[in-house]
Design brief:
150 residues; mainly alpha; two-stranded antiparallel ribbon; 4% strand
Length: 150
């Protein structure tokens, strides 16, 4: 790649990474806020709260956390360092693989949540059976790193 192409690539990666990080960060914040309200809610008086303890943090939350971290590292930090002409920590292929991996992790998270809330009506057993979705999501997220390296 020429220096102009590299600059264009990292500009595009920064744009994509920023949008993805903003989306994932907002969704993660929404999820944490929602579950916190299921844990404790305000009572009749403003200074008291009622313990409900109905919050659920299923294993699929790991996917959205990993996706958010991945999008920030590969979609914001890496392109910013490259745009500042700092020493490249990752190659453009690794940056691209990281952004694709964060998209895969986000998709796997939504699929795991739909499975958790029995939207597919596949199984009526405990949430521990979602472990295969998390494993597949992480494996699929690693694939771009492997496939784009060769």
């Amino acid at each position: 790649m020429t220096p102009a192409q590299m600059e264009h690539f990292y500009d595009a990666a920064l744009t994509a990474g920023s949008i993805l990080s903003g989306f994932l960060g907002t969704f993660l914040s929404f999820r944490i806020q929602r579950e916190a309200s299921y844990y404790r809610q305000p009572g009749q008086k403003l200074k008291e709260s009622i313990l409900i303890d109905l919050s659920q943090f299923p294993i699929s939350l790991l996917l959205i956390l990993l996706g958010t971290v991945c999008s920030v590292v590969f979609g914001i930090i890496t392109p910013l360092l490259a745009s500042a002409h700092a020493e490249r920590v990752f190659s453009p292929i690794t940056t691209l693989a990281g952004i694709i991996a964060s998209l895969i992790l986000a998709g796997a998270y939504f699929f795991a949540e739909m499975f958790h809330y029995r939207m597919f009506r596949i199984c009526d057993k405990e949430w521990r059976q979602e472990g295969w979705i998390v494993t597949c999501g992480i494996v699929l997220a690693v694939l771009p790193f492997i496939l784009l390296r060769t």
